[in-house]
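S2.1 Query sequence (NDK5 kinase)
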Amino acid sequence: MQMLMPEPQIAVERTLALIKPDVVAKEEEIEDIILRSGFLIVQKRKLQLSPEQCSNFYADQYGKMFFPNLTAYMSSGPLVAMVLARHCAISYWKELLGPSNSIKARKTHPDSLRAIYGTDDLRNALHGSHNFSSAEKEIRFMFPEVILEPIPARQGAVDYLNLYVNPTLLAGLTALCKEKPADPM
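Output structure tokens follow.
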């Protein structure tokens, strides 16, 4: 019977989300959508980046035609940085964002955040990490004090559950069975 059942997995992934300067006023509305979409906001901060910090953050875009406009736009006012977590967070966040060009997003993904809040290709309202390594790098950039611990998987998760979670559950459930309270909650 055990051979048919898959091993339990702890599959939580983190990604960086940025609410860009021109839509910071819609922060609460956007956060509500994020939470209703199954994400947990692990960390959040409001900050304003200098043009130099923006250049460093978007270093992989350096040399592209839009780079000066991008750094000017991103340093034009405060932004909100958030670490989002959930199963497959990066791909779900990218799906919720929609295409990077807001005009295209309105045609192809009308319910996406960029279609709703974005203006054009540059002012597309929100940012999301492209993959796992960029998510890690971007989270460290926006939250330098954060400790990104690897999430246990396979045997590490089983060991963690056996060492810390199961004994507590066993003790609590055993006490509950002995007491048999009328209202167990």
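Residues 152-184 form one domain. The chain has eight helices and four strands.
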